[in-house]
């Protein structure tokens, strides 16, 4: 059993619970007392990370499609003691070294505001509260900042890649109805996400509504990061991407340019289609990135082969961060991760919203079986869904505010490893 992480807030005294004589109990007064007790406790936001002046950023945002991104901000002033990075990815430089001590003190468990004021000064505590660095314990993990909407437009793939759960447990074909898709896109447009995807262990270009969906995106002025194996990305579909102007990036999964090895790794005979369609996409001027999945020496060899074949044509070629999808992929791709104790945060639950082919919202891209569901798109706006009690409860587990069960999905995910190079949060409670 994982021990509780944050202690239960002290209950009100017995005297404060006693029932007043009839006619003397005021609901407003009782609510005021309860609010006063709650605001008497403060805790550091688990979304905060710190960095030193002159230090390379310890935060790397790898889940966006334009390559690695980093926190932004002005050069540190001469008197900067440290920097703070929150959800907006902006560095705020702080000259008061005692502010860092305050944030550390209140990071693990809630602290009484009065004790913090006595130790660190009322003005310093007030400043931390005003910036959102110190919050009421019940408000932790309520905030989010969406970068993308990940829409599972189809629930099937024509490949069975060895590094993907589809190879051993493919899902039955399903297609998202257009009415449901239009509702999702309209709500995402209201959130002003940077882009959407059509991916979730599927091949979106097999979708019979593919071009119709592009037209809906164009109507809402939304950009598409298209992840594809290119086997069904015909030149005609490429022409539609050009015509509608919705493509942010085309990310092609290509584990090898050797036909025999390609077949072995993908379980597919579509080598010729994939090669021709990829070449046609590059020739059409589409922004093509090719990711090469694999591990070890085999990855290094295949990466060089793909680079030699497609690099001169103008494609960007990268190795992929192949992982075992929180334990759902075995063999040479198994990572054998288990994160015990307090979990340490992850960007997926706050920066991306994943919507299943049936319209359900779930935790993240590594949740192949969609175990951690927190609502349906018909239940409200994106803002209402992302701030629902179910969504907040999941984020509190991911960021270590509340205890999570031993079988919680994130405990088996590489994103929870403290030394994972793509960490986009380094909570003060863990990293200091």
What is the strand and helix layout of this fold?
Layout: H1 14-17, H2 27-39, E1 41-44, E2 49-51, E3 82-85, E4 91-94, H3 97-105, E5 111-112, H4 113-120, H5 122-130, E6 134-135, E7 148-151, H6 178-191, E8 195-197, H7 210-219, E9 224-228, H8 235-244, E10 247-253, H9 259-266, H10 271-283, E11 288-292, H11 296-310, E12 316-319, H12 348-351, E13 352-355, E14 360-362, E15 373-376, H13 382-386, H14 389-398, H15 428-431
Characterization of this structure:
The protein starts with 13 loop residues before the first helix and ends with a helix. Strands 12-11-10-9-8-7-13-14-15 form a nine-stranded mixed sheet. Helices cover 31% and strands 13% of the residues. The protein is of the alpha/beta class and 432 residues long. Mean pLDDT is 91; it is low at 1-38. The radius of gyration is 24 Å and the shape is globular. Helix 6 (178-191) runs parallel beside helix 7 and helix 7 (210-219) packs parallel to helix 8. It is built from 15 helices and 15 strands. A hairpin with a 5-residue loop joins strand 3 (82-85) and strand 4.
Characteristic key phrases:
single chain; 432 residues; alpha/beta; nine-stranded mixed sheet; 31% helix; 13% strand; disordered N terminus
């Amino acid at each position: 059993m994982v021990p509780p992480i944050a202690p239960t807030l002290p209950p009100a005294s017995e005297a404060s619970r006693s029932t007043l004589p009839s006619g003397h109990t005021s609901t407003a007064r009782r609510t005021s007392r309860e609010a006063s007790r709650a605001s008497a406790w403060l805790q550091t936001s688990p979304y905060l990370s710190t960095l030193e002046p002159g230090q390379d950023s310890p935060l790397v945002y790898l889940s966006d499609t334009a390559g690695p991104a980093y926190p932004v901000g002005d050069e540190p002033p001469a008197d900067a003691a440290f920097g703070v990075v929150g959800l907006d990815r902006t560095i705020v430089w702080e000259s008061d070294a005692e502010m860092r001590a305050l944030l550390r003190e209140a990071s693990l468990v809630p602290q009484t505001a009065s004790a913090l004021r006595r130790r660190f000064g009322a003005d310093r505590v007030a400043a931390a509260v005003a910036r959102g660095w110190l919050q009421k314990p019940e408000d932790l993990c309520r905030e989010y900042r969406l970068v993308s909407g990940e829409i599972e437009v189809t629930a099937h793939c024509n490949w069975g890649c060895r590094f993907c759960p589809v190879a051993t447990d493919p899902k039955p074909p399903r297609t998202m109805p257009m009415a449901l898709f239009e509702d999702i896109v309209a709500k995402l447009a209201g959130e002003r996400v940077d882009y959407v995807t059509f991916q979730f262990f599927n091949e979106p270009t097999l979708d019979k509504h593919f071009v119709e969906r592009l037209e809906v995106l164009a109507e809402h002025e939304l950009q598409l990061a298209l992840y594809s194996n290119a086997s069904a990305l015909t030149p005609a579909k490429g022409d539609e991407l050009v015509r509608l102007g919705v493509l942010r990036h085309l990310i092609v999964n290509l584990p090898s340019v050797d036909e025999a090895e390609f077949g072995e790794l993908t379980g597919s005979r579509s080598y010729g289609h994939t090669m021709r369609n990829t070449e046609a996409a590059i020739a059409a001027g589409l922004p093509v990135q090719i990711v090469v999945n694999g591990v070890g020496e085999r990855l290094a060899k295949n990466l060089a082969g793909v680079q030699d074949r497609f690099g001169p044509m103008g494609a960007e070629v990268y190795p992929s961060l192949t992982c075992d999808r929180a334990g759902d992929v075995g063999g040479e791709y198994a990572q054998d991760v288990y994160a015990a104790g307090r979990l340490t945060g992850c960007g997926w639950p706050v920066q991306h919203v994943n919507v299943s082919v049936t319209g359900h919202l779930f935790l993240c891209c590594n949740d192949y079986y969609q175990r951690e569901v927190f609502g349906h798109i018909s239940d409200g706006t994106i803002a209402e869904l992302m701030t629902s009690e179910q969504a907040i409860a999941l984020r509190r587990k991911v960021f270590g505010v509340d205890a999570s069960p031993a079988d919680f999905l994130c405990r088996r995910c590489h994103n929870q490893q403290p030394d994972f190079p793509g960490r986009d949060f380094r909570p003060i409670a863990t990293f200091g």
